[in-house]
Amino acid sequence: MNRRSCSIIILSIILSTPCFSKTDDTAHTLQLNQKKSYLTGFFALSVNLFLGKAHEYVLQDHNLLSHLEWQMKPVVSYTAQAEMLLFNILHFQTIAELVQPMPSGSMIDKDFKNIPRNSNLTHLSKHSCNLKEGSRITAAIGIPSLLPQTSKMEKKGISMSLEPMIGLHYSNLQWEAVNGYNQYGNKNPDGSYTEWNEHIEKKAIHGTVVSYRQALLVPTLGIGVGITLPHRLTIFSNVHISPQVISTCEDTHYDRNITFIDRTNHGWAVYSKTQVLWQLAHFFGLVSSFRYEKALGWNGSTIIEKKNKAPERLRSKAGTELEACTFSIGFAFIFGR
Length: 337
Description:
By secondary structure, the chain is mainly beta. The chain is built from two helices and 16 strands.
């Protein structure tokens, strides 16, 4: 093979290698730099506003027996994030988040005691809600490929990449409901309950009433799109979905000294995030993101634990849900460029 043929083959290999940008003045988050670094990326520290609701459900024969809503409106959390591009082929993302304990709104408990006769509300209680603790971890791996550029895009320093992704999302949140009131319908001679109405007497409650811990583990498949723009701006968006929600939830009622342990292995989830990185200096930048998530676990089993009694499995089915938005802003420290 002559020297010219070797040169053509080597050039073809180089041009076919996926990368995020071919210009030095447009800074994709994980661009392979002129020094051919095998590892590029950034590390970021952010503060977040975390807004949403968690729900717990009890169903029997597809009828809703009980629904508890735990609010977060909003709470503060803190994030450490690392993104890396290895050998310009594998894209790694890791996000660890700690939630600040603080008041988070209300807990609303609704019971439908007349099931299966009718599905009308019979019991209502409302309490102040505190988020006691929270930790969340997200990890994902993608394989990015550079999309074709038009001549106008290349001239302006604009490039786009597309990557299939796999991910794992873990969330562990715990709330506590205190004080408040209840409005319970009276029990009738035939065993049914009076339907709830706003004129039912409100009975005050003092102290800790209920606590709820929700732990979710969700494996996902996703797709990501990266856009490199002039002025050292980078946008990365991704969407992840899952046909499975693995959850373990504990609902403790202190006045009754009872803990309900719910486990699910079915459900669905969707996670979507858009992130913007603005590189201000060679090793430093600002990063901001918006994330939406919804995870719903259903058809779960419930075990009830009472003091000095053996655990008992209930006939009813359990469900849990988390729907939330997170807005984040912080500093990024860029390496390998």
